[in-house]
Amino acid sequence: MKVRVGIVGCGVVGTGVVELLIKNGSLISKKTGAHIELSKVADRDWQRPRAFEVPQHLRTTDYRQVLENSDIVVELVGGKDFAKNLIIEAIEKGKHVITANKHLLAEEGHEIFKKAQEKGLCVGFEASVGGGIPIIKAIRESLVGNNIRAVYGILNGTTNYILTRMLQEDVNFEEALKEAQEKGYAEADPSLDIDGWDSAHKIAILSFIAFGGFFPFSHVYVEGIRHIDLLDVELGKELGYTLKLLAIAKRRDESLEVRVHPTFLPEDDPLAKVSDVFNAIMVEGDFVGKTMFYGRGAGSHPTASAVVSDIVDVARRVLCGQRVDWEERTYSLSNNFYSRYYLRFDVPDKPGVLASIARVLADQQISIASVLQKEKVCKLAGREGKHIVPLVILTHKAYEGSMRKALEEVKNLPVVVGKPVVIRVEEEAE
Ligand SMILES: NC(=O)c1ccc[n+]([C@@H]2O[C@H](COP(=O)([O-])OP(=O)(O)OC[C@H]3O[C@@H](n4cnc5c(N)ncnc54)[C@H](OP(=O)(O)O)[C@@H]3O)[C@@H](O)[C@H]2O)c1
């Protein structure tokens, strides 16, 4: 059976998809029995040179030509408004849709999936999370027999590159960001990546499929890495931890925690070893236990590979008439996380300081696991001989609500200078 596929948006990913379908089309037909015919490719500018030349007869500047000539419409424009209208229009015209648009799906996926379900159509979105890593299919199909307990990982290559450079080369955040921009790993405006929003969009999508339901994206806790001080990366290393920007979704009873924040991991944790622009995702299921998925989280070819896997998947569904059902379930998110904490306070170098901070923590039932010796800290920070020194406290597991209350009080102690640094620590052993 022939399946006509049209693409709107021929940039980094769109060009990769055209290249893959043209170069490997017959291989795909042989492997799957589906003959994928590229029908039309729309973009608003065909003058711009591309990494792969799109055949003239496929090009158009009018997205409606794609809608008219395709069974499957692939949205690779990005952004929200135009992309959403395009997808809704395609669904209304009875077209299956494939998109890599994590921003749109995280914030408006519920409406889009519902609309497609009403029409008995598929929405493929493998490329929206983890680039070439087949994580969506793994959770939806390979791990379908499991109650998923947690999905977490490194979902943004730009921030992972920056943190890797800070850890390995002792460069500060600004220098590492500049390097990432020079290498093309970070955008000129890097805020979506470094402020954690890209990871948040992806973990929201993973939560929808792992836990079978929806929640408002605005309820996700999001903290990026812009404020990370090299001193804390180094102190963490001294304590045996590696700093990563983790996106975490966990089920606790009937509530969900979905959060993105800088996190210390034990240096021998498999995620701690994921460096540079690579992504990795852990999925924990009640029968399978822990599984880890690793690979390139972005780029033209890896992402095109994921888009094409959706095309073939939908083509097969078209062939055999299957449809995808979504659970109509909504979650409210819990913000009272339960985690260990790394705390750094700038304090005067005099007796009694630790005792006064420890008292406030104890009042909130937060117990201290270890304290980093001030002398050692001063040496690391190059702050010897100064009157104000950093004091690092690692806590046992505590509730976020208790920690916030304790920090409010600690901030008011006369011995604490400036804002305390708080980094969550993920490790199994207490
Ligand atoms: N790049 C990656 O590695 C990657 C990885 C995973 C997911 N994604 C997702 O994939 C999607 C596409 O990303 P990308 O990196 O390929 O973006 P891109 O390089 O900016 O490509 C988007 C293309 O769509 C064109 N376009 C914009 N508005 C249009 C319109 N109204 N009609 C027709 N064409 C239009 C753009 O033209 P102009 O340049 O003139 O605006 C551009 O050529 C995004 O949702 C992104 O989040 C990307």
Protein described:
- With 430 residues, the protein is an alpha/beta fold.
- It folds into 3 domains: 2-132 and 300-320, NAD(P)-binding Rossmann-like Domain (Rossmann fold), CATH 3.40.50; 136-295, Dihydrodipicolinate Reductase, domain 2 (2-Layer Sandwich); 338-425, ACT domain (Alpha-Beta Plaits, 2-Layer Sandwich), CATH 3.30.70.
- Helices cover 39% and strands 26% of the residues.
- It is built from 14 helices and 17 strands.
- It has helices at 12-32, 63-68, 81-92, 102-119, 135-142, 157-169, 173-182, 191-194, 197-211, 230-238, 300-320, 353-363, 374-381, 400-411; strands at 2-8, 35-42, 59-60, 72-75, 96-99, 123-124, 148-154, 221-222, 241-252, 255-266, 278-285, 289-296, 338-348, 368-372, 388-395, 398-399, 417-425.
- Strands 7, 8, 9, 10, 11, 12, 13, 14, 15, 16 and 17 form an 11-stranded mixed sheet that branches.
- The N and C termini lie far apart (57 Å).
- Bound molecules: NADP nicotinamide-adenine-dinucleotide phosphate.
- NADP nicotinamide-adenine-dinucleotide phosphate binds at residues 8-14, 42-45, 63, 76-78, 82, 100-102, 127, 131, 298-299, 303.
Known CATH architecture of the largest domain: 2-Layer Sandwich
Give the terminus-to-terminus CA distance. 57 Å
Strand content: 25-35%
- Estimate nothing, just give the exact number of structural domains: 3
Structural Rg: 24 Å
What structural category arises from helix and sheet content? alpha/beta
Mean pLDDT: 93
Number of strands: 17
Share of helical residues: 25-40%
Any idea of the CATH class of the largest domain? Alpha Beta
CATH superfamily of the largest domain: Dihydrodipicolinate Reductase, domain 2
For this structure, the CATH topology of the largest domain is Dihydrodipicolinate Reductase, domain 2
Q: List the ligand species.
A: NADP nicotinamide-adenine-dinucleotide phosphate
Number of helical stretches of at least 4 residues: 14
Low-confidence stretches: none
Largest sheet: 11 strands, mixed
Q: Shape, please? A: elongated
